[in-house]
Amino acid sequence: MGARLRILSANLWNGGADPDAFAQLVRTLDVDIAAVQELSPDQAEALAGVLEYGRLEPALDHHGMGIALRRPGKVDTLDLAYRPARTVTLEPEHWPELSRPAEIINAHIAAPHSFPQWQIALARRRQVQGLLEHLERGAPGRRALVGDLNATPLWPAYRSLCTRLEDAALIVAQREGRQPQRTWGPRPGSPRLLRIDHALVDGFSVEDFRVHAIAGSDHSAIAIDLNVD
Question: What pTM was computed for the model?
């Protein structure tokens, strides 16, 4: 096993997730990068106490986003329809385990059940198209797209993105002879019904993918270990 990069992605339910419990999860898992969606101010404060670098942009309108880092990285905004994504470039200068730069993208695609549905359907298509165009513009290299994509593997958004990227959960599940775990339920603590939180990768070897409960959220967190040798 070579050098490892551990990424955690979590939808924090617009402030519903317990800030201290989530910060403790990040600490316990020894996370290098935490990509969060629906981030509130108190959750941002707790997360910043564990990972001091990156950029956290909390809000209380379901649009709060953040990327928290163990070490410095260049965080940018990727303009998309409805809700921008965030990107971070990791350079070997600060991440010596990397032989070349790597990009992590944190995205939150619009929920399909929002209203008016025709506008949301259009926004979803435009968000996915914007992500695909970003991937097309970039030079070949190591990339990971993580976040609440609000799309199961049966949905067009997922299938479109998987024309360019591989599903880390599926890679690990097939290796272990099981089905990927679901990540969303209708309320905190309820059974998870859908797999809509994803880590899609290119240029990385996937070592592990696990799902973790988040106290107070309707989503589970996903933790991905990527080999960066």
Answer: 0.97
